[in-house]
Amino acid sequence: MRIASHPVVQFSRDKKIKFYFEGKELEGYEGETIAAALHSAGIKDYHYSPRLNRPRGFFCAIGNCSSCLMEVDGVSNVRVCTEKLIEGMKVQRQQGKGILKP
Amino acid sequence: MKKREIAVIGGGPAGLMAALYASRMGAAVTLLERHYNPGGQLVKQTHKFFGSQKQYAATRGIDIPQNLLKEIEQQEVEILLDTNVLGYYPDDGVIGYEKDEKFHTLKPDRLIVATGATENVLPFTNNDLPGIYGAGAVQTLMNEYGIVPGKKALMVGAGNIGLIISYQLMQAGVEVEGIIVRGPIIRGYGVHAAKVRRMGVPINTCCTVKSAHGSTCLEKVTTINLTENRETIPGTEREIHVDLLCIATGLSPLTELLWQAGCQMEYVAELGGHVSLRDKNMRTSQESIFVAGDASGIEEASMAMVEGMLAGLCAAKDLGYDDGRFKELYNDAIMQLSELRSGSDSEKVRKGLKECTLKEVTS
Which of B130, B172, B254 sits opposite A3 (nearest CB)? Predict the structure, then answer.
């Protein structure tokens, strides 16, 4: 969900863009991060841990903790809390350590 | 390999001030910032700052970076955004960084490390469930991106960050069920505590999180009361249905690069963790490396700004730069820091600084 009106901040939501989460089409805004777009769509579990398959979301939201690693356009271990959303991006939940491509 | 007189790592309050004052003295400065938006954590501080005019008191945090950038634009500072510094190679004095998915190297004559801090986690059962976020992370979601972070929230920690963000959660339309704090006292300013209490948010002291519950995301938190000696009191468990748990239990300095550089480090609890030894000019035990802001010890943004100013001035002076105002600005920075740290709130910091300040000053 997005904040409709805020007493202090004006949010610039100029350009809507489409992206895909696990094959499903979703909308976000240009200039925001992948995590912001997913969270606004109510999606909070981004990554399942390697050993115990525990759900993980983000924790720090500024690129420190690496709790939010996802697979983006086929690339594993992307920190979605700092990665900008781009039109047409394909985002998947990451299982475990992800796959390193040669 | 690129060469530069001064490199500043981190574009938050300390780094921006360091770049501004080093360039004002006449040095050629490159600032490296990992985010695409400079300002560090100021970009989400929607509240007005305390302190004096010099540190932008009564200005909202979110407006400070633009003010500083306007002043920086009048200098010739190279600002690299979206740039991750990956390491420091002490044998050669070279930093490695990633920009546009390429690896680059930079050799500065003087380096100012202003990398900030990271939020502390809290140990309890299921503390990794999505919906359990650092309080600063919640601020990023709400104030930078305009996302409602949850429906109902519980805040852990009643320092200024916990209190201010509880208020900001309500501004974003989130119900705040309460604030809990482990110790017997509320550490944040009385004015902030009064503000959230007036809005009906209870603050429970001597209380902590026992466990979190939920299948894929947080649904419920169990709290437990503590004695003043921080022992849990069985039978005092309470279940609170929330989908958001904010952890505001402090910050730790981000010091990886200082460790890599071989700076002498010391654990100083009062400053939030391991910090580098430094002299009063913010020079570390490595002659060419300065530190400023939260990376040198956790304090308010106003102190970070003045530390950045001091480090920037002194790094430039090392290289022979002085536009004629060095002495005046240097004395001003030293005085501002001592004024900012003079209150009873800063007693802890004053004690911590004694443990990590080198006596010899080469100014």
Answer: B172
The C-alpha atoms of residue B323 and residue B309 are separated, in whole angstroms, by 15
pLDDT digits (tens, 9 = 90+) for B266-282: 999 999 999 999 999 99
Within 8 A of A84 by CB-CB distance, chain B residues are 36
Alpha helices in chain B (DSSP H): 13-25, 64-73, 135-139, 160-171, 190-198, 256-260, 301-318, 326-340, 347-356
Put simply, the answer to whether B146 touches A2 (Cβ < 8 Å) is: yes
The conformation of residue A39, written as its DSSP 8-state character, comes to H
According to DSSP, residue B342 is labeled -
Residue A95 near chain B (CB below 8 Å): no
- The reply to whether residue A6 touches residue B36, judged by beta carbons under 8 angstroms, is no
The ipTM is 0.94
Residue B113, CB half-sphere, CA atoms under 13 Å: how many? Answer: 32
Q: Which two tokens stand for residue B113?
A: 């490390």
| Residue B123, beta-bridge partner list | none
Can you tell me the distance from the alpha carbon of A64 to that of A66, in angstroms, rounded to the nearest whole number? 6
Q: A73: which 2 tokens?
A: 């356009």
pLDDT digits (tens, 9 = 90+) for B321-352: 999 999 999 999 999 999 999 988 889 999 99
Tokens standing for A31? 């200039």
Whether pTM exceeds 0.90? yes
What are the C-alpha distances in Å from B155 to residues A101, B46, B129, B204, B331?
41, 18, 15, 10, 41
Q: Supply the pLDDT for residue A13.
A: 83
Q: Which residues contact B229 (CB under 8 A, 6 or more apart)?
A: none
